[in-house]
């Protein structure tokens, strides 16, 4: 289906969903994500501008996927604000995954401030019939 | 006479008391606004994508915008006098029929924004960098816009 490009709208950056557990100073934001599922994978794409690939932490335990990224302020020490329409802060978001994930094969790529996580789904084990030997 | 006096005093007392409560409420709300978390809801927004931050350091303006997922090739940047124009398009991932979306929060589309700066910019010295989804434009002020010292002669 071809769609004509519409204009992008400005969106406010969203704050954290739960106010608890903020260890670091500074605001924390919830990154926008797209989650979609293809045949064998679940793909999570998250907007995290300003986060370098080495500052991203991806954690998957007990079906909870945690994305967190640290950001350092891009401004130099002598710069004075004239207009500030967005704040700079860390990113944090958690998801609960319903499917079983093949953990050793998770792939994470970070380009231009966008994190792309590919989580391969584990094929459910086919039921096997066990033959009983009689001795 | 006594009754009139006491009635006068009664109404005045209640007037002050009402104001006192309002004053206390006003102070509470003012204190709430100083709390850092509230600043997240109060930022100025022009409603146009992308949100920008302009900072100034001596004779240079720095203009930054968060543009995740946009490569330098997808961006158009032009400067005229004191106006900077940023335009481009954010493309969405190509989808095929097998894709099932669970959540879709990232927008895609065209954007264009003109930003007018307070002083003239020297276009020949302007520079733009795009890294990790953040576009940083360095805009040095034009020579004519820099403040010049004027010597005062004592007469």
CATH topology of the largest domain in chain B: Immunoglobulin-like
Q: Could you say which overall geometry of chain A the principal axes of the C-alpha atoms support?
A: elongated
Tell me the number of strands of chain A: 9
How many whole angstroms does the radius of gyration of chain B measure? Answer: 28 Å
Terminal CA distance of chain B reads 74 Å
Q: Give the helix level of chain A as a range of percent.
A: under 10%
General description of the model:
The complex is a heterodimer of chains A (135) and B (155). Chain A has no helices and nine strands. The mean pLDDT of chain A is 80. By secondary structure, chain A is mainly beta. Chain A has a domain at 40-73 and 87-120: Immunoglobulin-like (Sandwich). Chain B is of the alpha+beta class. Chain B folds into two domains: 2-41; 52-93 and 107-145, Immunoglobulin-like. Chain B starts with a helix and ends in a 15-residue tail after the last strand. At the A-B interface, β2 and β6 of A face β1, β2, β5 and β6 of B.
Feature tags:
heterodimer; A: mainly beta; Immunoglobulin-like; four-stranded antiparallel β-sheet; 0% helix; B: alpha+beta; 1 helix; 8 strands; flat
């Amino acid at each position: 289906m071809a769609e004509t490009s519409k204009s992008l709208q400005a969106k406010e950056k969203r704050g954290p969903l739960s106010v608890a557990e903020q260890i670091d100073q500074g605001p924390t934001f919830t990154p926008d994500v797209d989650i979609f599922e293809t045949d064998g994978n679940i793909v999570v794409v998250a907007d995290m501008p300003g986060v370098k690939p080495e500052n991203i932490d991806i954690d998957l335990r007990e079906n909870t996927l945690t994305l967190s990224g640290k950001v350092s302020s891009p401004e130099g020490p002598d710069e004075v604000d004239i207009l500030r329409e967005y704040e700079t802060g860390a990113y944090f978001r958690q998801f609960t995954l319903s499917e079983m994930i093949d953990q050793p094969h998770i792939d994470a790529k970070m380009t231009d401030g966008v994190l792309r996580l590919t989580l391969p789904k584990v094929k459910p084990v086919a039921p096997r019939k066990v033959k009983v030997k009689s001795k | 006479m006594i009754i009139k006096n006491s009635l006068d005093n009664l109404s005045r007392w209640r007037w002050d008391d009402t104001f006192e409560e309002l004053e206390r409420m006003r102070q509470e709300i003012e204190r709430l606004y100083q709390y850092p978390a509230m600043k997240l809801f109060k930022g100025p927004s022009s409603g146009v994508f992308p949100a920008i931050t302009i900072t100034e350091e001596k004779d240079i303006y720095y203009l930054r915008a968060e543009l995740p997922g946009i490569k330098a090739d997808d961006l158009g940047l032009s400067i005229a006098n004191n106006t900077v124009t940023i335009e481009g398009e954010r493309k969405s991932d190509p989808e095929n029929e097998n894709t099932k979306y669970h959540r879709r929060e990232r927008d895609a589309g065209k954007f264009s924004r003109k930003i007018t700066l307070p002083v003239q910019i020297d276009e020949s010295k302007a520079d733009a960098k795009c890294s990790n989804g953040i576009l940083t434009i360095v805009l040095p002020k034009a020579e004519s816009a820099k403040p010049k010292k004027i010597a005062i002669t004592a007469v």
